[in-house]
Amino acid sequence: MLTTKEQGSEVARLLKQISDEYEAAQRGLSGLACGVSRHDFITARMEHLGQLHNQLQAIVGDAAIAMIAERLNTLH
């Protein structure tokens, strides 16, 4: 079982990974790679994002989706 400090670090790590995956997918859709990126790449990023969500949900429960939404809103 993780301590509170370890849980906080794990939550921060997962949120960072989620941000990174989302940004990679966004770049694949509209960034410099537009037209070059493959559907497989974007799909893989979004599937990994779902896996990270599940990991975060195991730690914080139903608050996970709100945390993800808040984090992704800061990217725009």
From TrEMBL:
Domain of life according to the entry: Bacteria
Protein name in the entry: Uncharacterized protein
Gene source species: Thermogemmatispora tikiterensis
Species lineage: Bacteria, Bacillati, Chloroflexota, Ktedonobacteria, Thermogemmatisporales
